[in-house]
Write a structure and sequence with these properties.
Elements (H helix, E strand, L loop, with lengths): L3 H11 L5 H8 L3 H13 L16 E4 L3 E8 L11 E8 L1 H11 L4 E4 L1 E3 L2 H12 L8 E3 L5 E7 L5 E7 L8 H6 L1 H4 L4 E5 L4 H14 L2 E5 L16 E7 H8 L6 H13 L4 E5 L5 E5 L2 E5 L15 H15 L4 H16 L17
Parallel strand pairs: 1-4, 1-9, 2-7, 5-6, 9-10, 10-11, 11-12
Antiparallel strand pairs: 2-3, 7-8, 12-13, 13-14
């Protein structure tokens, strides 16, 4: 370290709640000198201020992908190897981005760390989120790469047939980026990371969650990316995934209640705190001690079902919102998540415009 400010920054990064007196004692400075240096660091934008935030206003921090969603819904049953008439919808997307928007529409304080290009799509993505109250300070804006994209092919009923994702820009959310944005992450009690992040980034977040006593939620994005989790799961308070992703994580079929319970206990032995497995129209399975409990999904009439894109992210957002209110009541959190997913299934938008703070009090 070459300067007092650099030393202060390192100490605050290691413990955002450290007192000015403790900083002074460590560096041999007076309290007033420490206050002056901290004020200068805030002015320079290297820290956002002290981490003394009331618990119910601590931001929910989302880290991961943002992209433009293109959804092509076929008019007739799809024929492979042939041209199919379809209708196209476009909307903002990306798992972390979608979760952040859901949480913001519920009226919760949200901070998103993501990566977009300095193109029209990227600027629109950030601008729309900021208009909803999402803090995007610290997000990466790449001048030489386009904003990511996700293209989904849907059948006439709105079910996903195939999806193609260009998420290369998210690779820049690497450990160096995570270290640089430490000030933005300091005040968060809950961190939500999607599996678009690389293995090294996820491992760093997991270790930091242990050191800083923060709660880390990891949300799966696809079966092929499950290997990014690695073997050690200590530090992850909650993992949210679907059945196919759980099978991919453990590299085994899970076709019975007994096999699902055994899978949960195996993950528990690797250090995982809690688990939620989405099971489509059947609802979810959530961990309760050593057991997995089932919770049915609300019934959505087929005539009101639009399409599935974004429903899983709404489920995840509802679970996080519920745990933000009561960190120990996973069942109630899952019920809220299922309600949000049901609303999302009834709209062409990736995030339902009908979400509001009133849902938290329902």
């Amino acid at each position: 370290m070459n300067s007092t400010k650099d030393q202060l920054l390192a100490l605050v990064e290691a413990n955002p709640f450290i007192s000015q007196q403790a900083l002074g004692d460590t560096l041999g400075l007076s309290r007033s000198a420490v206050a002056g240096h901290l004020a200068q660091l805030v002015k320079e934008g290297r820290i956002l201020g002290r981490a003394y935030v009331l618990p119910n206003r601590q931001p929910l921090l989302c880290i991961g992908g943002s992209n433009l969603d293109r959804k092509l819904r076929a008019h007739e049953p799809l024929r492979m190897g042939s041209s199919n008439p379809a209708r196209q919808f476009e909307s903002a997307g990306g798992v972390a981005r979608n979760i952040a928007e859901n949480l913001a529409r519920l009226g919760l304080p949200v901070h998103l760390l993501t990566a977009v290009g300095r193109d029209a799509a990227g600027q629109a993505l950030l601008g729309d989120l900021q208009a909803l109250g999402v803090d995007c300070t610290g997000s990466l804006q790449a001048p030489d790469q386009p904003t990511g994209s996700y293209t989904a092919v849907l059948d006439p009923q709105g079910d996903l047939v195939l999806a193609l994702a260009d998420m290369a820009l998210t690779d820049q959310l690497d450990p160096d980026f995570i270290r640089r944005c430490a000030p933005q992450r300091a005040a968060a009690r809950w961190m939500v990371a999607d599996l678009n992040l690389g293995a090294a980034t996820l491992d760093l977040l997991r270790q930091e969650a242990i050191t800083r006593e923060q709660r880390l939620v990891v949300v799966a994005v696809s079966a092929p990316k499950m290997r990014r989790l690695g073997e050690a799961l200590a530090g992850i308070d909650l993992l949210i995934l679907n059945r196919a992703e759980l099978c991919a994580l453990l590299d085994q079929p899970l076709d019975s209640d007994a096999s699902l319970t055994a899978a949960w206990r195996q993950l528990q032995s690797r250090g995982l705190g809690r688990l939620v497995m989405s099971d489509g129209a059947h609802g979810v399975r959530f961990s309760d001690g050593d057991e997995l409990r089932a919770l049915p999904a609300p019934k959505v009439p087929r005539a009101r079902l639009r399409e599935v894109t974004g429903a899983g992210d709404a489920l995840s957002a509802g679970i996080v919102a519920g745990l933000h209110r009561d960190a120990d009541d996973l069942r109630a959190a899952c019920k809220l998540g299922l309600s949000l997913a049901a609303l999302t299934l009834q709209t062409d938008a990736t995030v339902s415009p009908d979400l509001s703070p009133a849902l938290l009090g329902a």
